[in-house]
Amino acid sequence: MFVALDDTDSREGMCTTFLLTEIIRRSELDVIGFPQLVRLNPAIEYKTRGNGALVVNLAKGKGAQTVIGKLDGREIRSYPEVLEEPSVDALMELSRDAVMEFSELGSPDTNPGIVISGHRFPRELYRESVQGEVSIEHAENFIIENGGIFLKVKSGRGIIGAAAAISWPMLSTTYELLVYRYPKPERMEASLKESIARRCESIPGTFNNFDPHNRYAAIFPRERTPVVFGIRGVEYEPILEAVPELLKSLPIAHDRYLIFSTNQGSDDHIIHNPEKFTENCSYEATGHVEGLPRNIEGSHYFVGFRTEAGTIDLAAFEPTKEFRERFRDLKPDDELRVFGTYRRGTLNVEKMEVMSVSRIFVRSSPVCESCGNLMESRGHMDYRCRNCRRKEDLPRYRLQERALVPGKYDVPVIARRHISRPYELEKVAWKAGILNRVPL
Questions:
Q1: For the ranges 79-88, 90-99, 172-181, 396-405, which has the lowest average pLDDT?
Q2: What 3-state DSSP class applies to 247?
Q3: What per-residue confidence (pLDDT) applies to 433?
Q4: In sequence order, which ranges of 87-189 are alpha helices (DSSP H)?
Q5: Is the pLDDT confidence value at 19 over 70?
Q6: Cα(440)–Cα(401) distance, rounded to whole angstroms?
Q7: pLDDT value at residue 48
Q8: Are the C-beta atoms of residues 103 and 153 closer than 8 Å to each other?
Q9: Fewer CB in a 10 Å sphere around the end CB: N or C, the chain?
Q10: Element (H, E) at 246
Q11: How distant, in Å, are the alpha carbons of 79, 109, 251 from that of 65?
Q12: Rounded-to-integer distance, Cα 318 and Cα 302, Å
């Protein structure tokens, strides 16, 4: 039985992934497959942090088992098949009690929703929710039409993400193991965080652990939630093998951990080949640079970009750090493929592929053919050699060497979104078979 929830946290505390672990713990049921952390449209303005919804298939399981976590000392086991389905009413009551106890209901922006279904929903709502914006009413109708039930708390906006999570078709799958300490982890020095993040780099197939240039330990959340840290990878086996020993060796307390399958690193939010740009949606667009990059206060950079869907601005904001160095090197007529979110006439770039760079010629004084010295300009169409007095009428032009070369350029780890697929992940992703095979 699929149980999904969303919108239980706030910027001040809680994490919906923790709340799902509590539902699993209280149910004492088995997990069928993996619990799932599903990131939705990262540009939605009412999101809390990473706009993630949660779903788990709970039942009595059968078949080969895999230990996928520990909750307060109890091993959580995953099974491939269902032996016996639980009571829908009992699951809803248990989930409601957990949501009412742990959600940040005092926050005006927290509006939990629970959805339960005996089967997966069609992918339609996932596509709409990851690439656009969905109303509560539309989500309600979708759930009812597809045989699910739901519970709304306050406005119940969380039913949108919860239903979308059940709709996730899992075309591109990665994994994240999250470690928890309730209600909040102990404070850690930056040096300890860096050390742990660097150790996680040695786990095969993991990504977005640490940003060495900016000394940023990406496995640790910025907000004070029950999450201690999370390790992302393209396969679950290496993570599950490494984490128990890692936790034993660390001087930090935890009380539970669980691995999730996710759509992180999928680029599912990207709309390809747009005919037009819509506010708060994310796109892949190909075109040519217009003009030179310009900067504004705060070290944010912008440049014009001509595409078949219209001319827009591209932006590289200060949080993209050293990526701006490549952005500043853009010249008119450079051909790019860019990925990013569109807001107020600007595409905020998440990564870019420089397909070709324009040829730029620089005018210079001619070289004297008699003595090899550089000639001096004496005015319009008048160049003279100081040594032999030879005269030339025309300047010379040379091809300017470009600092920017064709290639793929990621923003650094510190600036990456959960759902974005960095170029550096592509080779690993192809090998593990996590890339989308068919369009959403």
A1: 396-405
A2: helix
A3: 61
A4: 88-102, 124-131, 136-145, 158-167
A5: yes
A6: 42
A7: 80
A8: yes
A9: C
A10: helix 237-249
A11: 5, 39, 31
A12: 11
Is residue 305 within 8 Å of 312, Cβ to Cβ? Answer: yes
Cis-peptide, bond into residue 183, ω within 30° of zero: yes
- State how far the Cα of 219 lies from the Cα of 228, in Å rounded to an integer: 9
Amino acid letter for position 117: S
CATH class of 2-262: alpha beta
Q: Are 58 and 91 in contact (CB under 8 A)?
A: yes
Q: Average pLDDT of the chain?
A: 94
Averaged pLDDT, 372-386: 86
Asked if the domains at 2-262 and 270-359+402-418 fall in one CATH topology, the answer is no
d(CA 292, CA 5): 46
Taking domain 270-359+402-418, whether its CATH number is 2.40.50.1010 is answered by yes
Task: Look at residue 435 in the predicted model and tell me its pLDDT.
Answer: 60
Q: Look-up: residue for tokens 């996590």?
A: 434
Distance CA 250, CA 231 (A): 15
Q: How far apart are CA 340 and CA 335, in angstroms?
A: 16
Q: How far apart are CA 232 and CA 37, in angstroms?
A: 12
User: Where in the chain are the domains?
Assistant: 2-262, 270-359+402-418, 361-399
Which among 414, 52, 27 has a CA at the least distance from the CA of 269?
Answer: 52
Give the integer Cα–Cα distance in Å for 334 and 336: 6
- Written as six digits, the tokens of 277 are 């740009």
